[in-house]
Each structure stands twice: as structure tokens, then as C-alpha cells.
Amino acid sequence: MKKHLLIILAIVLVGVLPFSCSSPLNFKMIKMGHAQVPSHPVHDAMIFLAKRVEEKSNGKLRMKVFPNQQLGSERELLELLQIGSLGMTKVSAAALEGFAPTMSVFGLPYLFRDDAHQKKVLQGPIGKQLLLDGEKYWLRGLTYYDAGKRSFYTKDKSVETPADLAGKKVRVMESVTASNMVKAMGGSPTPVSYGELYTALQQGIVDAAENNPPSLYTSKHYEVCKFYSLDEHAALPDVVIVSTKVWESLTPQEQQWLQEAADESAEYQYELWAASTAESMRELEKAGVTITYPDKAPFREAVKGIYDQLEIDQPEIYKIAKAIQAVN
Fold first, then answer.
1. Span 253-262, average pLDDT
2. What is the pLDDT of residue 16?
């Protein structure tokens, strides 16, 4: 609670209200915070979003982007949106589990068949409904960004089968689904803030982590972890979110500008992501990272029980998962 109050105080001190109106200049400024470093392609997409909002509105609606956890962790940013102390954020779908429960479906291992399947789901009725499911929790999803596929990276040896995770402390996001997946594969899930992960790996607080290639590269975690095993166990999208308190304060025209700019930034981000993934893989190889492509079958087999248990414990989420898998 004390930390949360300090973050709110810092936001007020730097003028980062959820949005501000400047009467003499006649424009509204929306403040957006996120956790990624400025060199990450997701940050570039948000800068593009800000540019398009300003262009569409002829300067009447503007955005200022604060990267690198300047305003808090993903969980803290979501809490700030809920209370109306921040306007927008971008978080992993996993971070939304505790805020908009249906979003937890995206954390299920091997949910999508391939990239085309995932994109069709996200841009279709299921994806659009999930974006709006958070409104009752004061979080309105605007669009999805590609966050690639998550795979394990380790300090001592490659992960070729789930058995190689036995006894390892694996960093996970604050996500029950992610924790259950690592447990099913034999590892010991250990939640660690993304901003603290480099040090946690260095100091042996965790032995391994899992993420996509651009995040592994831009975070410099490869300096500590020299083994990257592309089991591609999850394909969690990122979600661009606006506080409902801010959304409802905008005129219908301003809402349209913001939604259109978000949709355009998503298309731009998909292009950036593909290029960044290819570049990151090249740079990781140049840095001496051992990259392997393990057989995915044993990993899929290890997590089958998650779906069986989901049907019992969370039938609503299970129903959404089956609907996603049924999309052709």
C-alpha cells in the first residue's frame, strides 16, 4: 500500500494525471505508461499510436508515453487505471488475469495452432469480446499487439524435455495459469517483476525464465542465460488498455480517433514485431546463445492436465478455450 501511494504521488508530481485539458491550447493529453524499455518494438508502436492520435485530431487529443516502468510495474499500472490516476497502458494478457478473469484463457499452453489462427481469433468476435470484458473492472481493451511465442531460457543447459525443468526455479509473471504450466512441466514457478529479473537471474534467485526473442534480447537477459530452447509453449498477446474513466470522459469523436489510432498502431506493431524477432534471433546467435528446437510433443503432453482441470474448476474459461480452438 505504501509503495502504491508513493507511485501515485510521483505521478502527481510529474503532472501525469490520467489526462489533462489545456484550455488556452484547447487539447487533451492522455498519459500512458508501460514496462518495456524504449528500444522494444512495442514502445515504438505506442509512439506511433500517439502520433496518429494527434494527427487524426489535428492536435486536439494527444498522448505522452512513459516506458520502462517509470510509473510502476504492470500490476501497478493496471491499478492506477482502475482508480483513474493514469489514462492508458500496455500489458501482457497474463497481467490481466487478476483484473479481467476471462483474459486468463490466453495464458493456456499451446492454445493456438499457428500465427494465422491466433490473429484470426484476436481480430474476430471472440477477441473483440474479450477486450470489452474488462470494462466492468474499469479497464477497456482497445487492441492487441503481437508478443510472439514464449520459450524457456536458462543459465546452465538447454531445456530439451520437461524433465530438464525439474528442480529449477523458473521466473513467471504474476499469473496462476503461467504458474500451473511450469508446475505441470516439473519446474518451480517463481514470480519476479520483469524489471528485477536480470538481477534475479544473476544472483541465482531464479535459474530460468521464459519469454519471446525480442524481450530476451532487449532485456539483455542473454548476458546471463546462454541457452534458449524454443518450445513455444505460449502465445500471449499484449493488450492496449484505456481507463474507462478516461474513455467515458472523451467525446464520441475523440473515442473514434483513439480507437482508430490504436487499430493502426496494431498493424504497424505486427510488422515491427516480425522484423524485431528476426533481428533478435540473429543477435542472440552472435552473442553466443545456444538456440535449440526441442520436440514439442512431450511439452504438450505434460500440460494436457491443465485443460482437464480447467473444465472442472473454471468451466467458463474452458468454454472460451474450446471456442478458440474451434476457429478455422
1. 98
2. 42
Radius of gyration of the chain (CA): 20
SS3 185: coil
Burial class of residue 1 (count of CB atoms within 10 Å of its CB; 0-12, 13-18, 19+): exposed
What are the grid coordinates assigned to 98, written together?
487478476
Rounded distance, CA 229 to CA 303, Å? 17
Span 64-86, average pLDDT: 94
**Mean per-residue pLDDT over the chain, rounded:** 92
C-alpha cell of 76?
Answer: 501497478
- Among 97, 82, 233, 92, which residue's Cα sits nearest to residue 159? 233
The mean pLDDT of 155-183, rounded to a whole number, is 95
Each residue's pLDDT tens digit, 193-223: 888 999 999 999 999 999 999 999 999 999 9
Contacts of 254 (CB under 8 A, 6+ apart): 28, 57, 60, 61
Distances (CA, A) of 59 to 18, 93, 147, 251: 18, 31, 30, 15
140 has pLDDT over 60: yes
Residue 23 phi/psi, 5-degree rounding, is -60, -45
Residue type present at position 18: P
User: Within 10 Å of residue 297's Cβ, how many Cβ atoms?
Assistant: 9
Q: Distance of CA 106 to CAs 60, 128, 234, Å?
A: 36, 13, 8
Distance in angstroms (rounded) separating the CA atoms of residues 142 and 135 = 11
Q: Which residues contact 201 (CB under 8 A, 6 or more apart)?
A: 155, 171, 209, 221, 224, 225
The DSSP output letter for 237 is P
The alpha carbon dihedral of 54, 122, 114, 285 has a sign of: positive
- Angstrom CA distances, 279 to 95, 222, 318, stand at 27, 14, 36
Name the band, by pLDDT with cuts 50, 70 and 90, for residue 3.
low
What's the sign of the alpha-carbon dihedral 299, 119, 263, 106?
negative
